[in-house]
Amino acid sequence: MARSRCARAVDRADFVFLTKDQLGKRYPGVSLAGLPERGGAGLVIVADVAAAEKALGAVGVKSADGVVVPPAEGNGTMLAFVGA
Amino acid sequence: MTLKNVIGIDHAVVMVKDLDKAAENYKRLGFTVSPRGTHSPHMGSGNYTIMFDPDYMELLGVLTPTEHNAPARANLEKNGEGIERIAFTAVDSAEGAEEIRARGYPPVGPTDFERPVTMPNGAISAAKFRTFQWPTAEAPAGVRIFACQHKTRETVWIPELMKHANGARRLKQVLMVAPEPAKEAAHLSKMIDRETRNEADGAVAVRSGG
Fold first, then answer.
1. How distant is the Cα of A74 from the closest Cα of chain B, in angstroms?
2. B176 within a domain of the structure (yes/no)
């Protein structure tokens, strides 16, 4: 907890801009239905992928070395769980 | 020169139509979701947070329409649910606001607000923030950008809220779709004084932290 009490600049997420088509190619098999052509599309989350697979069950789609929640199942936000 | 008071992505704001249903959905996805928070009255919004380290997600919903939440409501109407805003961590919002003003972006704020927090021991505390925004029209890929100074980190990063059944630990990337990714990335790059990086598949990344 002490580690979190001071704001620090390391381990911060990057922005990645891409077309919807490019996003589909990064995450094959994941439906992008409902995503706009321009807007926030999703989050890549560092996780224990095995735990994510177990917790997500049938909602999770194995894709791109991780497990992905399609945007339709994540309130309009694709959630890609990947290893560290 | 890099902004001194803006040190990386702090949280992603996911705008939802029904706040309580969205929280239940995220619980089903294996996230530990905070108790519901209610923001200051002028904001008219409520939230649930999903805490990682050093960042988090925020599920945000409108409880009462106000002038403050008009842009968020308009976005929800136009684009539906999803990532509506990205917050950076501000070291000092007052100084950060002046930094972006000096770069030609008249800031909105700084603005102070808070929400009550029930701590794990049942005590009532408060999460206090000071935020500033880049002008609303400056929205790369349609996503608004603001910065958040946490004045009470201990009431936000509560250890019990940082453990998730799905193993989630921290954000790695925020994915933004757009027909012209390079143009949108250049826009953000200019706003936060960070370089862009071309990726092999044509995507363009912008680093947010150190």
1. 7
2. no
Q: Is A7 on the interface with B (CB under 8 A)?
A: yes
Q: How many residues does chain A have?
A: 84
Q: Is B123 part of any domain? A: yes
Tokens of B99: 């930094």
Within 8 A of B173 by CB-CB distance, chain A residues are: 13-16, 43-44
Q: With contacts defined as CB-CB under 8 Å, which chain B residues touch A50?
A: 167
Q: Do B201 and A49 touch (CB under 8 A)?
A: no
> By the CB < 8 Å criterion, does A68 face chain B?
no
A8 to chain B, any CB pair closer than 8 A? The answer is: yes
Q: Residues B131-175: pLDDT tens digits? A: 999 999 999 999 999 999 999 999 999 999 999 999 999 999 999
Q: Which residues pair with B117 in a beta bridge?
A: B125
Would you say residue B183 lies in a domain?
no
Taking the mean position of all CA atoms in its chain, how far away is CA A62? 12
Domain-located, residue B177: no
Given CB atoms, is A57 within the 8 Å cutoff of chain B?
A: no
Edge-first strand order for the sheet with B196-198 is A61-63, A66-69, A78-82, A39-47, B168-177, A14-18, B204-206, B196-198
Report pTM. 0.95
The CATH number of the domain holding residue B102 is 3.10.180.10
The count of structural domains within chain B is: 1
* ipTM of the modeled complex: 0.95
Q: Tokens 């620090």 — which residue? A: A8
